[in-house]
Specification:
Blueprint: H1 2-21, H2 24-39, E1 47-51, E2 56-61, E3 67-72, E4 87-90, E5 93-98, E6 104-109, E7 115-120, E8 126-127, E9 131-133, E10 136-142, E11 148-155, E12 161-168, E13 170-171, E14 175-177, E15 180-186, E16 195-201, E17 207-213, E18 222-224, E19 227-231, E20 235-240, E21 246-251, E22 261-263, E23 266-271, E24 274-279, E25 285-290, E26 298-302, E27 305-309, E28 315-320, E29 326-331, E30 342-344, E31 347-351, E32 356-361, E33 367-372, E34 385-387
Antiparallel strand pairs: 1-2, 1-34, 2-3, 4-5, 5-6, 6-7, 8-10, 9-10, 10-11, 11-12, 13-15, 14-15, 15-16, 16-17, 18-19, 19-20, 20-21, 22-23, 23-24, 24-25, 26-27, 27-28, 28-29, 30-31, 31-32, 32-33
């Protein structure tokens, strides 16, 4: 800001001098230089939080790329291995999970990396990414059998368990609306993927309703305007959020490995290199857009823009949600995406699996800065967290 202010006054004075003297060549060069300087984005003064595939949490300076702190979630036996499904940042606290010893939930002080608490929630299993709601941390943990899960609620201040509920199938991450928690859970062994959409009371953990599906994906359901939407294996199912009553179901172009996302009255799916917009009221198609020849894309909806990443190509795409027009794309140096994009104050943050974090201008996709975390594999299917 200081530089731009002084460049403005300096340029104003010098341009007037050039005009008076008729030195148009100098004027042209000066204008080109000022345009380049004033249009060049600068790295933001913020901190990016990422968790690696093996359970190490990093706090990275958004301006310099230096690591402010790192902590490995080793559980109670100092293990060096533990899969993490992602993290969330709320009120200066990082909440994340690790599969060490079956399932630990951690709370870190975001500024310093000090461990506030860590709680073992399960003896064997794989935890989902936790969410924070009104002083409570929620997550699901898939049991070692891969045929059942437990959903947990923990007090955010000290990690004490409030309640836990057993459900059938491999539980996804959670979606919360009002007083209910929603998740998909399917049997993820053998040839069958049958399962259920669940709704749990967030205060007691009691199951309010469940709806059976012939096929369940590993993505959480979408809740819009009192309706729960889930991908039932190429079939979108719309359920009334209060009681699970089936409103409609329709075959849809959606890859089982890509999440269903939506906002307002529109759902978005991806399949075989195409992005689709569907009417949330009945599942009818509004438009489709060919992105590229890669089969698999994972859409993330932020505001009025869809961001598409793939685990089979190095490019990220920004697409206008209204009509599918590609706004910009950026090609990274890695072949596989890591974490999903997040946007903060005009900057798009995302990572690639090789440990490189990128910061792009939201409006144009111009690279602001990129930096690598040594020996980190950022592959969590969740967004990075960004904060001061």
């Amino acid at each position: 800001m200081w530089l731009r202010k002084h460049l403005f006054w300096l340029s104003h004075f010098q341009i007037n001098q050039c005009v008076r003297k008729g030195n148009h060549i100098v004027l042209l060069l000066m204008l080109m230089f000022l345009a380049a300087c004033q249009g060049e984005p600068s790295p933001p003064n913020t901190t990016i939080y990422a968790v690696s595939q093996n359970g190490t949490v990093y706090a990275v300076n958004g301006k310099t790329g230096t690591i402010s702190w790192s902590q490995h979630m080793s559980g109670g036996d100092n293990s060096r291995f533990g899969i993490s499904a992602g993290l969330t940042l709320d009120h200066g606290i990082i909440y994340t999970s690790s599969s060490v010893d079956g399932g630990y939930v951690y709370a870190f002080q975001a500024q310093t990396g000090v461990v506030r608490w860590h709680t073992q929630v399960h003896s064997q299993g794989i935890p989902s990414s936790p969410i924070f709601v009104n002083g409570v941390v929620y997550l699901s943990v898939t049991d070692q059998s891969l045929s059942s899960s437990h959903v947990y609620a923990l007090t955010a201040t000290n990690g004490s368990v409030i309640w836990s509920t057993s459900i059938q199938g491999c539980g996804t991450a959670l979606t919360t609306v009002g007083d209910l928690l929603y998740l998909n859970a399917g049997v993820c062994t053998g040839t069958g993927y049958q399962g259920n959409v669940y709704a749990l009371d967030m205060h007691t953990g009691s199951i309010q309703w469940q709806y059976p599906l012939d096929a369940v994906t590993s993505w959480k359901p979408v809740v819009l305007n009192g309706v729960v939407y889930s991908d039932g294996g190429g079939l979108i199912v719309a359920l009334r959020a209060t009681d699970g009553h089936l409103l409609w179901q329709k075959k849809a172009p959606i890859d089982a490995h890509s999440p269903l996302v939506g906002a307002g009255t529109v759902l978005y799916t991806a399949e075989n290199g195409f992005l689709y917009a569907l009417r949330a009221g009945d599942g009818s198609q509004l438009w489709q857009r060919h992105i590229s020849n890669q089969d698999l894309y994972d859409p993330t909806l932020i505001g009025n823009t869809l961001y598409l990443v793939s685990f089979f190509e190095p490019e990220i795409y920004a697409v206008r949600a209204r009509d599918g027009a590609v706004l910009w794309s950026y090609q990274t140096q890695a072949p596989s995406a890591g974490s999903f994009p997040v946007v903060d104050e005009g900057v798009v943050y995302f990572s690639m699996r090789d440990g490189t974090i990128y910061e792009l201008a939201e409006s144009s996709g111009t690279l602001i800065v990129s930096y690598s975390i040594t020996d980190a594999r950022l592959f969590t299917h969740t967004p990075l967290a960004v904060g001061a």
